[in-house]
Inverse folding.
């Protein structure tokens, strides 16, 4: 009988111990959720959570940050960033097409077309005057693509800014603005589809593409006809971030929180490595 009593007492202690562990785990999980809920407080975030989807504006023409395939699917560094933000909020990411010429107007449109825009958007004072921008999560800077056979020919802006040089840019973004401000003698050609410009340079339709250090390596790796001779000497230095309308400070806090977490746990570095991008944090 004493042995049976000992066994029963042992079982009771085991059950009590398990109950305590479950209770402590539940309390810990509750505390975690409470912290997250506090970070998600705000009208805009509550709207997104209730809807169940985070609507993300993106151009889909900027490999390897944001690209839309013919079947409609999106991939890229910025696309994965958006999905991470959506996952943190417990919702699904839904991608909405925008363009560089209409980007600002689309962010500010009524009714609202999407919650924020992502995918190669440089943080600038001009954008911050009328909209909100997150902290940077990717280093950026202007550089060029040219044919591999011309790599030794173009070593500076002065080499590019010659009457016989044809420079191609996409419309409405900072590439076109940079070309117009810095190239007074070269011929500037505006081409509507950014993703087509590298091939046009490779084929000889243009000599130079004004691009970014985030975009150039992808095309150099995938098309041996192309080179980026000034990749390590960009003309400008900046950061890429998430763009949204003012009045969504709660959503901005969430986005910055995710960026900070990804920097802290190493996942942002791993994402840079996945897409062969320079990590500078």
């Amino acid at each position: 009988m004493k042995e049976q009593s000992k066994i029963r007492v042992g079982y009771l202690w085991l059950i009590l111990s398990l109950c305590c562990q479950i209770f402590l785990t539940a309390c810990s999980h509750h505390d975690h959720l409470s912290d997250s809920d506090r970070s998600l407080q705000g009208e805009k975030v509550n709207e997104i959570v209730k809807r169940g989807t985070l609507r993300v504006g993106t151009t889909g023409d900027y490999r390897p940050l944001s690209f839309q395939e013919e079947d409609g699917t999106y991939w890229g560094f910025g696309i994965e960033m958006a999905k991470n933000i959506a996952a943190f909020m417990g919702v699904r990411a839904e991608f909405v097409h925008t363009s560089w010429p209409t980007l600002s107007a689309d962010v500010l449109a009524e009714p609202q077309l999407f919650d924020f825009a992502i995918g190669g958007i440089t943080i600038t004072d001009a954008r911050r005057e009328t909209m909100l921008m997150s902290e940077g999560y990717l280093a950026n800077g202007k550089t060029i693509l040219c044919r591999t056979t011309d790599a030794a020919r173009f070593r500076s802006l002065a080499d590019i800014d010659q009457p016989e040089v044809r420079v191609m840019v996409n419309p409405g973004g900072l590439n076109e603005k940079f070309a117009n401000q810095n190239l007074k003698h070269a011929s500037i050609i505006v081409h509507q589809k950014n993703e087509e410009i590298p091939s046009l340079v490779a084929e000889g339709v243009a000599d130079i593409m004004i691009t970014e250090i985030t975009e150039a390596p992808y095309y150099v790796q995938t098309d041996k006809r192309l080179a980026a001779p000034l990749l390590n000497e960009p003309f400008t230095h900046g950061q890429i971030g998430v763009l949204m309308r003012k009045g969504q400070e709660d959503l901005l806090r969430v986005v910055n929180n995710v960026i900070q977490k990804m920097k802290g746990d190493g996942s942002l570095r791993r994402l840079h490595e996945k897409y062969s991008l320079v990590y500078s944090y």
